[in-house]
Design brief:
The complex is a heterodimer of chains A (267) and B (307).
Chain A lengths: L2 H19 L4 H14 L18 E4 L5 H10 L39 H15 L5 E6 L6 H12 L5 E7 L8 H4 L5 H7 L3 E6 L3 H9 L6 E6 L22 H12 L5
Parallel strand pairs in A: 1-2, 2-3, 3-5, 4-5
Helix pairs in contact in A: 1-2, 1-3, 1-9, 2-3, 2-8, 4-5
Chain B lengths: L1 H11 L6 E4 L8 H6 L4 E3 L4 H12 L5 E6 L8 H10 L4 E6 L17 H6 L5 E3 L4 H12 L5 E4 L21 E4 L5 E4 L4 H13 L5 E4 L2 E3 L16 E8 L4 H8 L10 E6 L10 H7 L4 H14 L1
Parallel strand pairs in B: 1-2, 1-3, 3-4, 4-6, 5-6, 8-9, 8-11, 11-12
Antiparallel strand pairs in B: 5-10, 7-9
Helix pairs in contact in B: 3-4, 7-10
């Protein structure tokens, strides 16, 4: 499936899921949505039939709070019936507010930040030792980089030359209470990772063509892609607003958001 | 026990398709392993949290992954990684923690592994083993080899005396009987068993003969209701090199819920909070906390006298 078609579907589904469930993190979902859409487009060959194969590309959503975007992508691709999204964050549902590995397509149960990258280094190292192809993609939030395991794993990945490991940071510059730079400044982020002997590229995290190109490149080292994004992307009153980390759209906001995303053009 | 573990994993690594990950520890322990299986040895550096997450990822493509570190570094430091990445994911990872209890006593409080069992017992899916000697260790390792479950192996520092007679087929599905006597019971878990068996000698000299049970598995808990004289009046002493809360005594009492038990018959010897700033070698600290052979014998006699 073309990434732009997938993105358009996911955006509508995420809006419905968070509205109907009263659940949070819609801002984070809209921020990461284009990255998820590109990784689950036909460019990266991840399907229900092969996602567990040792040779396949792997995707780990380390910023687990954006799970609605991933669940919407997986359901759209037939990993489980799309009707199950109606139960998102409802009592007794399989689909909660953070990833669960019992759901087809989910590699790791995340939600506590800083777990995805270490786990991914293990898969990448195992693939390398066993001679399997396939890339290991980790989607992290920028606030998540505060976790010490990020830097432990950054050392480990370069020491073991994990050129099959790609971290995509959803760089929206906002974390839980305020901006990343007012919280625990990350800049210059690219220089930090370069000094750890990683390849680094900074791109527009909503531009599908650029995302596809950069994610398809052969790497000689572990790679960090700083995907610059807008939290709440696509809905004017949600964009760059910290409160949409927590808030769920009420009926009026939902209807307004539906109209805005219907008119959205994806690059 | 760590040398016995190193020898075992060196022998089994290929058949189990295992990887050994260390948090930069094991000097003088894994030289032979590294020589024979260089591609299966990973030093993850002094980074216990990411080490455990990384080991979980490794185990999705390999067989069982063993993660080796010391006491609290292998347990409390990376507790959430053990909970989320190993146990909840239900992966074939075994955390091997050396230096249980006061093994590194003179290194100070940071090195006293005396709260790990209670933290780890609370984690679903994780099988928690604490063998007392190499005989129990071999039975535990045999069980681990046949299992797909996550596990935690709590070992002493090394040189623990054998308390079992040579028997490599020890059944660890239930507490292991070391003595059968007429004067109540003593339960213990782990290398503190040596002190218990020394206390047995002291007690025997005074004509006191308790039954003695070793408990090499702490989670899932054994069912103790068949061993403890429910409804009877036998004295029960539980000895552990661990703080009072959440470990062997808790596991025994939990298994007795719903049974007719008189708690006045019970006594618990464990590490008290009062002396946490004290340091010294293992023998010194065991004596200080009255979990040495003399303290154990004295407490058991006192329990019998009270009744």
């Amino acid at each position: 499936m073309d990434s732009r078609i997938l993105a358009s579907e996911i955006r509508k589904l995420v809006l419905k899921m968070t509205h109907h469930s009263g659940a949070s993190h819609i801002g984070s979902c809209f921020s990461v949505l284009d990255i998820v859409s590109v990784l689950y487009s036909s460019n990266f060959d991840i399907y229900l039939e092969n996602w567990k194969d040792n040779k396949s590309n792997r995707v780990i959503l380390s910023k687990g709070h954006a799970i609605a975007a991933l669940y919407a992508a997986l359901a759209t691709k037939g990993f489980f019936p799309i009707g199950q999204l109606d139960n998102y964050c409802k009592n007794g549902s399989m689909l909660g507010g953070h990833p669960n590995h019992l759901v087809p397509g989910v590699e790791l149960s995340t939600g506590s930040l800083g777990h995805g990258l270490p786990y991914a280094t293990g898969i990448a190292l195992a693939k390398k030792k066993l001679g399997y192809g396939g890339q290991v993609f980790v989607i992290m939030s920028d606030g998540e980089l505060d976790e010490g395991t990020t830097w432990e794993s950054a050392l480990f990945a370069q020491h073991n030359n994990l050129c099959n490991l790609t971290v995509i940071v959803d760089r929206n510059f906002l974390q839980s209470l305020e901006s990343t730079e007012s919280t625990l400044s990350l800049e210059p982020l690219d220089e930090k990772f370069r000094s750890f002997n990683w390849e680094v590229e900074t791109i527009d995290g909503h531009d599908h063509i650029k995302l596809i190109n950069v994610l398809s490149k052969t790497q000689l080292k572990p790679k960090l892609i700083i995907a610059e994004t807008i939290k709440g992307k696509g809905v004017s009153f949600m964009e760059n607003e910290v409160k949409w980390h927590y808030k769920s759209p009420n009926q009026e906001e939902f209807e307004k958001a539906v109209k805005e995303i219907e008119n959205m053009d994806t690059l | 026990m760590r040398s016995a573990f190193a020898k075992w994993i060196t022998k089994e690594a290929i058949e189990m398709n295992s990887i050994l990950v260390t948090g930069d520890l094991g000097f003088g322990v894994f030289e032979e392993f590294r020589k024979v299986h260089s591609g299966r040895f990973i030093n993850a550096g002094v980074a216990e949290q990411s080490m455990v997450g990384m080991a979980s990822g490794l185990s999705t493509l390999f067989g069982r992954v063993f993660v080796y570190s010391i006491g609290n570094f292998a347990s409390l430091r990376c507790l959430e990684q053990i909970r989320n990445d190993v146990a909840y994911m239900n992966l074939p990872v075994t955390i091997v923690s050396v230096g249980s209890g006061f093994s590194y006593g003179s290194q100070g409080y940071t090195h006293h592994a005396i709260e790990d069992i209670s933290a780890l017992r609370a984690i679903p899916n994780l099988i928690l083993y604490a063998p007392a000697d190499i005989i129990e260790l071999h039975s535990v390792l045999t069980e681990i080899r046949q299992s797909d479950s996550p596990s935690f192996l709590r070992l002493g520092r090394g040189g623990e005396p054998k308390i079992h007679e040579m028997n490599y087929d020890l059944d660890i599905a239930s507490p292991s009987a070391l003595a059968s006597g007429k004067d109540g019971c003593i339960f213990f878990s782990g290398p503190i068993g040596f002190e218990v068996m020394s206390a047995q000698q002291i007690l025997a000299g005074e004509g006191i003969f308790p039954s003695i049970y070793s408990c090499p598995r702490l989670s899932p808990s054994y069912n103790f209701s068949d061993l403890i004289n429910v409804g009877g009046s036998s004295a029960i002493l539980v000895v552990e090199e661990h703080v009072r809360s959440g470990a062997l005594m808790s596991s025994i009492l939990e298994s007795l819920i719903g049974h007719d038990v008189n708690l006045a018959n019970f006594c618990h010897l464990a590490v008290d909070n009062g002396a946490i700033h004290e340091l010294g070698d293992q023998g010194y600290l065991r004596k200080l906390h009255k979990i040495d052979s003399t303290g154990i014998a004295k407490e058991f006699k006192s329990l019998l006298d009270k009744r």
